[in-house]
Amino acid sequence: MIVYLNGRFLPREEAHLSPEDRGFLFADAIYEVVRYGGGHPYRLGEHLERMRDGLTAIRIAADPQFFPPVASRLLAENGLEKDDALVYAQVSRGAAPRYHAFPPEGTPPTIFAFARRTDPAPPAEGGRAILVPDERWGRCDVKSVMLLANVLASQKAREAGAIEAVLVRDGIAWEGTKSNLFARVGRVLRTAPRGPRILPGVTRAATLEAAAALGESIEERPISIEELFSADEVFLASTTLWTYPVVEIDGRRIGDGRPGPLATRLKETLQAEFHGARAGLAT
Ligand code: PLP
User: Fold this and answer.
1) Are 30 and 58 in contact (CB under 8 A)?
2) Rounded to 5 degrees, what are φ and ψ at 231?
């Protein structure tokens, strides 16, 4: 596997980071994950915009424009140009002696990136989720690598045989550990509004656009736990999952316990957009 580190493409085994890297010591870094198919990215502009917002929020001086050529070369170097692949990139505040406040002016950020084939799609019959207290920091809109709360919640989900842990704070089901949350309550499609409690998912935005085009009523309003359990349909949205039905939460059936029609239609719509872009039919 060939990876990218600070301007060089090299075998993963030869990519070494300083033990004083602030990403390692302080989780002082942001990351991004972009889906590629046949060498073409899905909604790259939105990912780069989010990366720019994240870098600005945590005051790292780096230009997200490094990403497109690095991603293309990683796909080529790893023989993934024809495949469905994910490109991961991380930017940290660089390596410097350990003091909490920023390192000396001019310390270069550390930029690391790799590409890998997407995992097989999860079972079509939908997945189970569990509710877990949301113990994350107050800026969940920043795609920070400080993911310990997500890691612990995600492990709880795995141990419960669930596909995702839904994070709950103040009686609100905000989002998953690595996905946004949607619920169709009554005749309205609901998802939490943008703000510090959720990551503004690229798939979330695409899902809202697709749902509007299908004529759905949409409300970007927090979903209470009660509303979640009374929903006809619940689904997750993320780069890796597209839209994916949740058929059971904490052992309680959602709707009729089968994947809802909307999640399936939205997934088809998003995938059609992706394949259209690959075929050069859309931007
Ligand atoms: N919410 C969280 C906490 C995430 O980590 C992710 C993706 O990693 C998402 C939502 C979905 O974002 P996207 O659709 O951009 O992949």
Assistant:
1) yes
2) -70, 150
> Quick one: 235 exposed, middle or buried, by C-beta within 10 A (0-12, 13-18, 19+)?
buried
Residues with a known catalytic role: 143
Q: Who contacts 18 (Cβ-Cβ below 8 Å, separation ≥6)?
A: 24, 95, 110
- Ligand 1 atom closest to residue 240's alpha carbon, by position in its atom list: 16
pTM: 0.96
CB atoms within 10 A of CB 110: 23
- Under DSSP, the state recorded for 12 is G
Closest CA to 175 of 219, 211, 222, 212: 222
In the sheet with 84-92, reading across from the earlier edge strand, the strands are 8-11, 2-5, 110-117, 84-92, 29-37, 40-41
Residue 118's region, left for phi above 0, alpha for psi from -120 to 50, else beta, is beta
pLDDT of 282 strictly over 60: no
- Which of 146, 239, 243 for a ligand 1 pocket mutation test, highest count of atoms within 8 Å of Cβ? 239
**203 C-alpha to center of ligand 1: Å?**
8
Please state, as a whole number, how many other Cβ atoms lie within 10 Å of the Cβ of residue 190.
23
Q: What is the pLDDT of residues 156-189, one digit of tens each?
A: 999 999 999 999 999 999 999 999 999 999 899 9
Q: Which of 216, 206, 222, 208 is nearest to 186 (CA)?
A: 216
